[in-house]
Write a structure and sequence with these properties.
Structural class: alpha/beta
Strand content: 5-15%
CATH architecture: Alpha-Beta Barrel
Number of domains: 1
CATH superfamily: Glycosidases
Bound molecules: (3S,4R)-3-hydroxy-2-oxopiperidin-4-yl beta-D-xylopyranoside
CATH topology: TIM Barrel
């Protein structure tokens, strides 16, 4: 670690609430005490996903980091359809309300995740009381009611919505979800129309993983163009950015940023994390159904992350932030999918019960050593 890094890290320690007795000269401390949201203030929002422990205020240490470092939030799970409308017509808003209040109290940019997604959707959404698939009309009405009820509740308070999540496969074709089986590709423009009706001021996004895969990128571009040609409002494209140490390719990611921006929509990094663990299958995306059994050899860092791996992780993060900065005119937000490593879904997907290190803060909510490099990049 060089002198500058040491100074910045000390300052950051103060910023995230560690005790620091090093007594740095005043001028350097002011500069070095920068947080992520300060360092990137004139570039793009820096956001994080919040889980229930954070939303309900139980996880005080995590919340301190959230308030100090981030200026945008998204709900990790509590707005997904199985949680927010577990039974038809029975909405559960307690957690989502708290999430929005937390963002407002802290003057944050608030993102709603998500309205229409095949995953974490309750079974009732697609079937009648006999268990048979519902008609086009019934599914359309269920979508309308779901979207209108939620979006109008938070009208003017949630700034942007992930309206449709993960509708395109890695090969660029439509995912054969229940929405697609029953409504065909129409379900996508319908979802965007309903969201726009409910809050005409809200930004509306399409969000997906593995957007650096050329065929998938092309599929999302085709979908977006079609929506635009049909006069449907779409304001942004979300690149989830669930990475590993050797995927996705930076070159392909850059092509995606450029192709998406050429559609004249905002480009956003919506769910970033970088897993250090070996991947269990050839699939490197975020297909929730794509899981594997636990095996010790896939869980090599249970006792801690060796320094060389931490450096590798840091270098990957720095490369991606460099790329995002290069395209800061196109990118409106970079959101991390969680605060500290202990909160990350990557500990349990695609294999349950592993110890991963995919985020910027460790299990004690201390900054990783490379956070200073990410802050310095923005200077
Ligand atoms: C994940 C959550 O992080 C987990 O807690 C949950 O069990 C499964 O979903 N793509 C998305 C996110 O759009 O909503 C997913 O979040 C991760 C992949």
């Amino acid at each position: 670690m060089n002198v500058l890094q040491t100074i910045i890290l000390s300052g950051l320690a103060v910023a995230v609430g560690m005790s620091c007795t090093s007594g740095q000269p005043q001028g350097e401390q002011v500069d070095s005490a920068k947080t992520l949201k300060e360092a990137y203030a004139d570039k793009f929002y820096v956001g994080t996903a919040l889980d229930l422990g954070q939303i309900k205020g139980h996880n005080v240490a995590a919340l301190e980091v959230v308030q100090q470092q981030f200026n945008s939030i998204v709900a990790e799970n509590c707005m997904k359809s199985e949680n927010i409308q577990p039974q038809e017509g029975v909405f559960f808003f307690d957690d989502a309300d708290k999430f929005v209040e937390l963002g407002e109290k802290n003057g944050m940019h608030i993102v709603g995740h998500n309205l229409i997604w095949h995953s974490q959707a309750p079974d009732w959404f697609f079937v009648d009381k006999h268990g048979n698939d519902v008609s086009r009309e019934v599914l359309t009405e269920r979508m309308r009611n779901h979207i209108h009820t939620i979006v109008s509740r938070y009208k003017g308070r949630i700034h942007g919505w992930d309206v449709v999540n993960e509708a395109i496969l890695d090969n660029g074709e439509y995912r054969p979800s229940k929405f697609y089986e029953i409504l065909g590709e129409d379900f996508i423009p319908l979802a965007f129309k309903f969201a726009h009706q409910a809050d005409p001021e809200a930004e509306l996004y399409y969000n997906d993983y593995s957007t650096a895969i050329p065929a998938k990128r092309a599929g999302i571009v085709r979908l977006t163009k079609k929506l635009q040609d049909d006069g449907i409002q779409i304001d942004g494209l979300g690149m989830q950015e669930h990475h590993g140490l050797s995927h996705a390719s930076l070159e392909e990611t850059e092509k995606t940023i450029i192709d998406f921006a050429n559609l004249r929509v905002k480009v956003m990094v919506t769910e970033m994390d970088i897993s250090v663990l070996p991947h269990a299958s050839p699939h490197v995306g975020a297909e929730l159904a794509d899981t594997a059994a636990y095996n010790e050899s896939f869980d090599p860092y249970k006792e801690g992350l060796p320094a060389d791996k931490m450096n590798e992780l840091g270098a990957r993060y720095v490369s991606f932030f460099n790329l995002y900065l290069k395209h800061q005119d196109k990118i409106s937000r970079v959101t991390l999918w969680g605060v500290g490593d202990g909160d990350s879904w990557k500990n349990n997907w695609p294999i349950e019960g592993r110890t991963d290190y995919p985020l910027l803060f460790d299990r004690h909510y201390q900054p990783k050593p490379f956070l200073v490099d990410i802050l310095e990049l923005a200077n």
